């Protein structure tokens, strides 16, 4: 096999994309010399003289894809060059298009995730640098790969791109329409036959009147981050009866039309990071709805978030003791009858408090037996207790997010929290971390905001056997030093500290976090400008990336860290501001590679 490997490498001319592509292909094939010899012969002798054109290598890998991966791989050409594609967005679009078939023992979502991971492992798509944490939650397609699959997708699936310099409108039936960098006044849109389009995706400005009743066969309407989208542009949305995926995420939409209730096949409704605060009552009629995403995304700047609509979104969101945390204003009121949506897998963030019959409404949420992710906000002390006692009925729940002025109800009577949670997000004043958290053996990700914890609370997290990501964000910790003791956080791969403006020292003892790959410190201006500011970096034997940003002028600390990463066996990247101060050794792969 070594002999065959040398032949194949010779034909790749040392080009990284060619090597990664062929390597990904071989990794999925039987490991025999015969298999490798067949590939070598298939590549052809001509490649030795013309693998400056590595398209043939990429096409060879594409042709070697199993049938179930080919269509979803071509589908990636819908997204613009260098666009960072969110994993969940891609998976839900695949499902809405009907590309993912349900298997007897797996949910469709899990099948789609498996296919996504296959494409990553074959190096057909790349993990994005914007991916945070330990999973590849965003991906990109290499520009040359996209160029190849774009032509194939246009030919095979009738894709048409409307850009600044588009070609003439094709006479054949268009299945997928993408509008990118559109300028008003263009005549192209009037000449397109919309009646056969199955997906409409817009990047940039939304052309007026494009969302038309003529889109009879539309399954996917993706308007994420569209500019100048107005409520009136959605007036015909209820006539798109076959729609399965609707994303308005990141737009200026503030109200959904009542005709939304007509979309009886809708599976995904994404209105996250919009100005929508109330769902139409008819949402309860969408029996096939699986993913309902609303409110403001759980992010580091959630407590600092200021929305343009000052009447609906208050900028004062938790911070000083005694002040009211208005995080629950960044959610959407749960409509009556939401418990009827038995197919819901994801619900959040919805405000289940401050209404009539709150206790009854919380109990009704337990009817959603397929729920895997739940985000709730606006709970009073009594309502929080009701939630804790009811939530144990959700046997499929894997991720829980709770936002409230006070989260003290979590630390009182041990709640019936499902022990199989793998993700926990808390936003609000907690003061003390509940002891029961240490019993969540499947917990892999914890993100905290405004919880105001102390050093003793870290003990409830340090021995979680599967914790891989810990985010300590603004106001989550109120001590002046943070200490990680020996023999703890054994599975942690990503530690993200952000907005702890009072902390002056972070200490990591030897034999702590042995698997840590990323250590980020942002917005911690009080750090000491000496070796006490951040100590223990040499103990992190698997570290690939160290970030120190917006922490003020720290010349001495920076010099110390530069010396430590230079002597580190992995030579991790040290990022300060927007610059990479020290790069990893070229022979050492980094997390981004």
From TrEMBL:
<feature type="domain" description="Disease resistance R13L4/SHOC-2-like LRR">
    <location>
        <begin position="197"/>
        <end position="295"/>
    </location>
</feature>
<dbReference type="InterPro" id="IPR042197">
    <property type="entry name" value="Apaf_helical"/>
</dbReference>
<dbReference type="InterPro" id="IPR058922">
    <property type="entry name" value="WHD_DRP"/>
</dbReference>
<dbReference type="GO" id="GO:0009626">
    <property type="term" value="P:plant-type hypersensitive response"/>
</dbReference>
<dbReference type="InterPro" id="IPR055414">
    <property type="entry name" value="LRR_R13L4/SHOC2-like"/>
</dbReference>
<dbReference type="InterPro" id="IPR032675">
    <property type="entry name" value="LRR_dom_sf"/>
</dbReference>
<feature type="domain" description="Disease resistance protein winged helix">
    <location>
        <begin position="78"/>
        <end position="149"/>
    </location>
</feature>
<dbReference type="GO" id="GO:0002758">
    <property type="term" value="P:innate immune response-activating signaling pathway"/>
</dbReference>
<protein>
    <recommendedName>
        <fullName>NB-ARC domain-containing protein</fullName>
    </recommendedName>
</protein>
<dbReference type="GO" id="GO:0042742">
    <property type="term" value="P:defense response to bacterium"/>
</dbReference>
<dbReference type="Pfam" id="PF23559">
    <property type="entry name" value="WHD_DRP"/>
</dbReference>
<dbReference type="Pfam" id="PF23598">
    <property type="entry name" value="LRR_14"/>
</dbReference>
<dbReference type="InterPro" id="IPR027417">
    <property type="entry name" value="P-loop_NTPase"/>
</dbReference>
<feature type="domain" description="Disease resistance R13L4/SHOC-2-like LRR">
    <location>
        <begin position="331"/>
        <end position="574"/>
    </location>
</feature>
<keyword id="KW-0611">Plant defense</keyword>
<dbReference type="InterPro" id="IPR044974">
    <property type="entry name" value="Disease_R_plants"/>
</dbReference>
<dbReference type="InterPro" id="IPR036388">
    <property type="entry name" value="WH-like_DNA-bd_sf"/>
</dbReference>
<keyword id="KW-0677">Repeat</keyword>
